[in-house]
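tool_call: predict_structure(chain=1)
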Amino acid sequence: MKSDRRVVLGLSGGVDSAVAARLLQRDGYEVLGLYLDAGDPSARADAEATAAFLGVDLRVCDIREALEAQVCQPFAKAYLRGETPNPCILCNPKVKFRALCDDADARGAAFIATGHYARAKDGMLFRGEPANDQSYMLCRLTREQARRLLLPLGGMEKARVRALAAEFDLPVARKPDSMEICFIPDRDYAGWLARRGAVPGPGRVLFRGETVGRHEGVHRWTVGQRLPGLYDGRKLYVAAIAPEKNALVAALWEDLFRTRFRVHDLSWLIDPPVAPLRCSVRVRHTKWENPDCTVLPDADGASVVADSPVRAPAPGQAAAFYQGERLVGGGWIARESEEGQPEEWTEGKDRA
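tool_result:
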């Protein structure tokens, strides 16, 4: 029998999950901790110290094998395909929240919880405070995971959480925020990929059918990133990555904006739509770009038609969909066929 006053919290060793644990305790929950061990002994020590301080029964789950299979390998393959994957969005439904739900089942807990800055209510997920909203990172959770999720920090900003950590005298109250990916702590994506095997060598940068520069490997670039130098006094940006030709396709800033793109492998927190769906879309973890759009589902995914142009939707990144404040699902942005690209892009490819 699962207790609706018992919750398994992902205790990471950071400030956010520590404050979330204390808030849940204050609301009368029996908090059980789960530390997902990706090989960082310092973070594990901090999680153990927080659990001991709060009287939380902490279990450790070694996720390194699952992380390698479900996140690291797909992440590496996507980069070499010229995509820009988001490892946290990959990890959340397949590793992190799956482990939390499995542990909650084993320990008789009805709920799971994390320190994400988003809101959860009655099995639905909503945006958090604009300054630090993390709902985008949760766009591919399953409906079952969302149904069980508690998010104690949803209505707060980071400054308030920091103040609570000091007020609660938590052992990690002064610990700095972690900005890195757990399996790439130095944030050197290119170096991490190179250590795993062969990576592309130098190649050309194409702009309007001409070679205008060289790059040191397409895996070092993402769509929307600015290229060095100027072209006739104008800045250039990566508009597309063509790994099969080891080329970067450049464009001016104003040419990065699109009103139509495709998504695949959709995951919905509502009944999957079979008719055009009006909503808004976010194509990266930003606070300001969230235009209204129409999602047109089909057998291979969906086309997204935005009411106003979206800057550089990058293949491999997630597109998160919202109805009002509610998060309703997400999918992966697909690479365009040459037929779907602007003429100057395909022209450049044809001359390569």
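agent: The CA atoms of residues 260 and 305 lie 5 Å apart. Proceeding to next step.
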